[in-house]
Design a protein that fits this description.
- By secondary structure, the chain is α/β, with parallel strands linked by helices.
- It contains six helices and eight strands, in the order E-E-E-H-E-H-E-E-H-E-H-E-H-H.
- Strand 2 and strand 3 form a beta hairpin.
- The longest helix has 22 residues.
- The N and C termini lie close together (6 Å).
Amino acid sequence: MTILIDNGHGGLINGVYQTAGKRSPVWDDGAQLFEGEFNRAIVNQIIQELTKLKINYVNIAPEYWDVRLETRVNRANKYSPTESFYLSVHSNAGGGRGSEIFTSPGDTKSDQIATIFGNEFIEKFPERTLRTDFSDGDLDKERRFYVLTRTRMPAILTENFFMDNEEECRTLLMTREGRAQIAHYHVEAIKKVKHQLY
């Protein structure tokens, strides 16, 4: 199994954030989260752990500029559709709380992967909310996001808490401990996906 890891959006280049929007409010002390920086921090921690575990991975968008979605998908689609899966890491916004896991519409292997991730989230964050949609019999939410519908392999997208929720942003998304916990949940889920599905 090869995991194709995608850190959503651009990063910081010479202190300049590369993606319009996709940031928290400026909090009272002047602190602000840039989603692309957060996504990269989580993906880098995941990669560090996968390297130790000898689990194959590819960083789909290692650049700091905002790599186009089409480019991300084209890079991913060079890999085997049966021996890889695509993981896109994000943080949410829009006035909510908790985390979500998305797949494309329909019943596919992506749903099985999302279920493993969802169950791992519940285990690692028992006091936090997993925002689910069981209308089709499983916990993930379904959307026609570009990276979920255009990739040839199973694909999921994780939305890790809300950057415009001050409590979640300040205690989870902007702290070393919170980021380590988020990365750890992903790594443990990846291990289970490899063991159970590949």
